[in-house]
Amino acid sequence: MNVIIKAMEERRSIRKFKPDMPSKADIEQIVEAGLYAANGRGKQGAVIIAITDRKTRDQLSDDNRKIGGWDEGFDPFYGAPVILVVLADKDINTGIYDGSLVMGNLMLAAHSLGLGSIWIHRAKEEFEMPEYKKLLADLGIEGNWEGIGHCAVGYISGEAPAPAPRKGNRAFFIE
User: Fold this and answer.
1) At 89, which CATH number?
2) What are phi and psi for residue 88, nearest 5 degrees?
C-alpha cells in the first residue's frame, strides 16, 4: 500500500500524551508540511503558530477549557506539549477550507514522524478575545484572522486507539 494512504488509514486522534517535548526539527517538519497544504487559488491564506512555551500553552488550555465549559483542572489538549494553532485569513473566501487542509497535513505529518495528534476546536472563540488579538499583534501578524483549530502534538502515552469501523453508504460511484 502507498505510504501516504497507509498513514491516512492508520492516523488516530490521541487523547493521552507524554509530557516529553518532541524535537524542534520534528516540530519544524510538521509545520512545513502544514504550509504545503492545498489552498484555494494559491492564496496561502492560513498561518500556523507553534506553541512550545509551557506558560503560553497552559494559558491557552485554560481559556479553551473555559470556552468549552469544562471543570477547572481539565486539559482539553490532553497533556500534549506542543500546540499548533491554525488561523485563516477572513478576507479570503476559501480561508476556512484552506485552514482545514493545513490541519489535516499537520496531523498526517505528526503521525509520519511517530507522534500523536488531535484536532481541538474553539480557536475561533479564543482568537476573538482581546488577549489573543494582542498575541497576533505581538507576533507581527496583521490582518483579519479566524481561528480554525489547534493541532495538539506529542508522544503517545499508551497505545493508539483502534480504528472505528467505517460506516457504509458513504461512497458512491457514477460510471
Assistant:
1) 3.40.109.10
2) -120, 145
User: How many CB atoms sit inside 10 A of residue 128's CB?
Assistant: 13
Segments forming the whole domain that contains residue 76 = 3-154
Per-residue cell: 45: 491564506
Asked if residue 167 belongs to a domain, the reply is no
Distance of CA 60 to the CA centre of its chain: 13
How many domains would you assign to the chain?
1
pLDDT per residue as tens digits for the range 46-104: 999 999 999 999 999 999 999 999 999 999 999 999 999 999 999 999 999 999 999 99
Task: Answer whether 146's CB lies under 8 Å from 87's CB.
Answer: yes
Distance CA 166, CA 110 (A): 23
pLDDT in tens, 42-61: 999 999 999 999 999 999 99
